[in-house]
Amino acid sequence: MKLHKETQKYHRIEAFILTAIFFILSVAFFIKTASHPEEYSTLMLLAGGGAIILSLAVFYYLTAQRVDLSVSESSIKYKYRVYPFLSEKRKIKWKDVEEARIVETSLGSSLSGFDVNFDMMEEKHSLNGTNGLALHLKNGSHVFLGSQNLSSLRSAISALEQNKAVG
């Protein structure tokens, strides 16, 4: 039985704003070079077109990212994907988990560092910063699974702990 299921999408508005600004500046540069071909070289025109394509590719990458998280009584499943290029699925059985805890950080700490993570020992799958489920596995590895719906995830983990205590 599934206790929690969610699909995360990338939602950092500042990244979208910066991408939009870069796109607008690239279009303006392209129009300027195309309307005055005697002043600018063909290479400048190609650079403007390349900048437009790059900004559209970044926008696509940001909007195409998804992380699916599913918590059931027997396992945790997650799938990271950037459609259609990359897809990674993983299933962690509860019997392989030594410790599971909910991690919730303040808004201020989630805004610092733009979700950059330098911990090489932890496998991190999150489009929501540092709010989610931290797992310490019996093999010694650490996995962090981000969540945009902490209350539902917290309820699912509590239900599992109650079932474990009763059973």
Q: Can you describe what's shown?
A:
The protein has 167 residues and is α+β, with helices and mostly antiparallel strands. The protein folds into 2 domains: 2-9 and 71-166, no CATH class; 13-63. It contains 4 helices and 8 strands. The strands form 2 sheets. Strands 1-2-3-4 form a 4-stranded antiparallel sheet. The chain has a 4-stranded mixed sheet with strand order 5-7-8-6, covered by helices on one side. A hairpin with a 4-residue loop joins strand 7 (132-137) and strand 8. Helix 1 packs antiparallel against helix 2. The radius of gyration is 22 Å and the shape is elongated. The model has no long low-confidence stretch (mean pLDDT 86).
Anisotropy-based shape: elongated
- Percentage beta strand: 25-35%
Query: What ranges have pLDDT less than 50 throughout 5 or more consecutive residues?
Result: none
Distance between the termini: 16 Å
DSSP strand tally: 8
The SSE order reads EHHEEEEHEEEH
Domains counted in the coordinates: how many?
2
Using the CA coordinates, give the radius of gyration. 22 Å
Q: Which structural class do the helices and strands define?
A: alpha+beta
Query: How many strands, which pairing sense, and closed or not: the largest β-sheet?
Result: 4 strands, antiparallel
**Mean pLDDT over the full residue set:** 86
Biggest sheet strand line-up: 1-2-3-4
Approximately how much helix is present in the residues? Answer: 40-55%
- Total helices: the number is 4
